[in-house]
User: Which sequence fits this backbone?
DNA sequence: ATGTAGGCGCTACGCCGACAA
DNA sequence: TTGTCGGCGTAGCGCCTACAT
């Protein structure tokens, strides 16, 4: 009759020893559902571009700190490394269920342009499950007063059909989370007007996962009809890195040193990508990068669209205008394409949206692509208006593989 | 009427915004009480010896991993750095209350032996509070069935005296934790036979701190008569570093790179010392290091004592014998004095005690010190038995500041 | 269609002394 | 001296509908 252990799941893998790190890769569909519709992982074996600059931004975000400006870069570490994506495993934090991907990368020598152009445009499927729903929890859902109110369409789409001959119609649901722990819920259809509810078992789940109003839960049904459930916490309460292990300086320098050492020795290195914490993806398929850098003509004043995730876990495009171009950090990362575009957004509610994006983040509205292959030098010489000196010099200095 | 927020403290600094990292240094007495009687921090402004090797061991322990053997050391990073201890701040993890110290170090040029010998033997006071008690929680203490049974002497020593004219004698206690949050308890003296108990308020504290049987709580009374309380968790459930931020390789390399960069530029760097997680102290006062290395004659077969912490938070000495001497990691850290002694312990219950310790960890039993100063070379040439070739060559190669 | 609140039964939290170790 | 238990009152958890949006 202990206090805390009682809130564990009722069945399943609780008997296993305290295994703090998931060993194997998790259920891919559920992982992607938790990660959200925008998260696309490059396939294993493909070539990717790794941006140490973006990696340090994720580390800084995890520690809720600004990027340390006083850490110098390694003189030989370029702002981007072309790598072979040697392996990807999907994980979830044991305590928070936060999803993250472990990637092992092997730096490869720069490819010549011919090869680069011949690389296929690798299609990355989001692998969002078709049979799933996601609901942001209300105060009533998380209070101790009652259960969970299931949106009608959601229940009808992913839950097994109820026997409406019963009064009231009810069934027991079993769903597994990312750690393969099973949770039991009583699913009942009652009330006036009628509605779908989760009652018994729901509060145990809320307590164990420490869910609060504003967090979201999602249910999916796999191709065998098995239910799975995951959570997406509100941004404000994402896991915070304990600062008690390494100083942020050491973390920052560790990212750079690991990449630098791997690049110098062409050896494997390992990074973690936290899709819901990282400000931007910092491992990009070569084809996506190349398509944006080589084929996309951008200029100040150009209009574009960009995809964002809505609160209801679908996607929506916002419109914006390029207001400037230039290095985000000209001292430490000169001639980097990382978030080199300064942008403004059409909608006034755009306070949260980033003021700097990368070329491969945006979709141009008009005349998007030039014929390929066309030398960069030729295009840079073409007269175009509305560009300042900084931009011009950046374009001149930049070359594809630097 | 929310589920989780209700278990917070009833008064005090809950209103402050979600501040994940303690800014200022905490109450020193309470911190030291939580850290335990063996933890002695060198004073700010003194010179210390920093061992990157020991630092990586702490990081590995925090991640519950072995030290990565495949990470090479930086060619110019010595196994120890003499540093000025520029600053020390005391902290506690927001989620677990685990105590840790942040130290900023500035590498300084090696001092000549004369200066080293003249440096005073800095006395480090443990600053354990005199009025305090520590109790390991029983199953009854942590169950939901009842409150907390206070040891009689403990209650009489640190709690305000009860008015025994009341029936039953009782009072309300207020105590602040390391985060300056206040907790309220009903302290009552009742039962047959009579005993001291904490009833109302205790279960809230246990839930909020997620205490389990085996964890320890401690109460202290400061010089103003204010009560403070802290916790010491059982080793098995110490905070585990989330592996989702940096790979262990990057952490490991980050420690080395930060120290290497600071040593090369004589600039400040920051480390965290987790006294209850780290296998050994890796920042040692110069005087302590010097006293052990320069003055202490050790040889295989020598008997020694070493201090350990008991379960009741006092100290006790165990006896042992030196069984070997030599580098722990001859490849990456040659001629390091870090845990260079292989030892065996007298008591058969010594399974948990370390098999390797450093010179400054032990207290020799007989004829401990030679007159000082006496050249190392001379002592190394003196004939002594029972030493193998490895030890001899190590002693010959080693010099004070390498 | 679904969030919130009132009503109310019943579980289990938590306060008590009785034992024993 | 103090760990655990049986006894027990009651706070609050959680299931139900009503009502509002």
Assistant:
């Amino acid at each position: 009759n202990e206090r805390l252990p009682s809130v564990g799941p009722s069945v399943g893998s609780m008997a296993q020893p305290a295994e703090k790190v998931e060993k194997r890769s998790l259920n891919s569909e559920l992982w992607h559902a938790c990660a959200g519709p925008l998260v696309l992982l490059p396939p294993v074996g493909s070539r990717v571009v790794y941006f140490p600059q973006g990696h340090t931004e994720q580390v800084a975000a995890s520690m809720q700190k600004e990027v340390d400006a006083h850490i110098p870069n390694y003189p030989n570490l370029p702002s981007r490394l072309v790598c072979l994506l040697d392996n990807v495993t999907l994980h979830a934090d044991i305590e928070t269920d936060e999803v993250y991907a472990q990637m092992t990368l092997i730096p490869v020598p720069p490819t010549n342009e011919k090869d680069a152009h011949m690389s296929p445009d690798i299609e990355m499927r989001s692998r969002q499950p078709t049979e799933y729903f996601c609901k942001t929890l209300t105060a009533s859902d998380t209070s101790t007063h009652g259960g969970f109110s299931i949106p009608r369409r959601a229940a009808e789409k992913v839950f097994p059909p109820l026997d409406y001959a019963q009064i009231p119609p009810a069934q027991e649901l079993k769903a597994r989370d990312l750690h393969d722990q099973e949770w039991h819920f009583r699913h009942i259809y009652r009330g006036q007007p009628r509605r779908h509810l989760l009652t018994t078992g729901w509060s145990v789940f809320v307590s164990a996962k420490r869910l609060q109003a504003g967090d979201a839960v999602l249910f999916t049904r796999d191709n065998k009809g098995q239910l799975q459930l995951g959570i997406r916490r509100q941004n404000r309460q994402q896991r915070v890195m304990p600062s008690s292990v390494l100083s942020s300086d050491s973390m920052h320098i560790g990212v750079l040193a690991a990449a630098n050492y791997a690049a110098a020795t062409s050896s494997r290195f390992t990074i973690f990508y936290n899709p819901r914490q990282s400000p931007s993806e910092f491992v990009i398929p070569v084809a996506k990068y190349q398509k944006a850098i080589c084929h996309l003509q951008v200029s100040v004043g150009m209009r574009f669209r960009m995809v964002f995730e809505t609160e209801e876990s679908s996607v929506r495009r916002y419109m914006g205008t390029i207001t400037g171009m230039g290095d985000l950090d000209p001292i430490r990362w000169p001639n980097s394409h990382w978030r080199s575009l300064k942008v403004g957004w059409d909608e006034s509610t755009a306070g949260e949206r980033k003021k700097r994006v990368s070329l491969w983040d945006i979709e141009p509205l008009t005349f998007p692509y030039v014929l390929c292959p066309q030398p960069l030098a030729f295009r840079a010489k073409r007269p175009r208006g509305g560009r300042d000196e900084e931009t011009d010099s950046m374009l001149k200095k930049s070359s594809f593989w630097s």
Observations:
- Residues 1, 138-141, 143, 145-146, 149-152, 191, 193, 195 of chain B lie near DNA strand D (CB under 10 Å from a C1').
